Amino acid sequence: RISKREKTIGKRIKMKKILVLLLLIYGVVAFAQIPRFTKYNVASTSVQIYLPTEPKWDQSTSEDGSEIFIYDDLFGNMNYSAIIVKLHPTVVNDKPENLLESYMIYLEKAVFTLDQKAGFGKGHTLENQPNVKGILQMGKSKDGKEYKIMGWTDGKYIAVLVTSSLEEMNYNIQEMFLR
User: 109: Cβ–Cβ under 8 A, 6 or more apart, which residues?
Assistant: First the structure.
């Protein structure tokens, strides 16, 4: 037969186990690496973008005179990249979505080296900017890195936003960044 004192000790041990479990759960949730996106200006352009970390823009000029701004940072297990192109006035044309597609094909081959691709998803738009058109591409590189690439253009700028990781990526976090 169990005494009253032994029952009390048993209850205390159970409470301590529950408390330890709750503290572990809290620790995992509190210290999980979830990015907090903040709106930043893209250098001296009129473009603004939500990023998980303060950007340090690498800036260059293309052969056609377009200005290129590149952001690339690892946060948690996901890499975030943004390539913003301020098109030179001589490059701007009446079919900006075709120009965006050509640029994304170039990036697929030259930068991301995608081995497996889903094919372009065209016709994306932004609710607050109906003149901006978007193209989505998903794929995987030979080393197993998964990519989700979203390209946007209004005819004056091209923005290519990329998430990539060797691990499974959180869909909601990707969408916050890409859109």
Answer: none
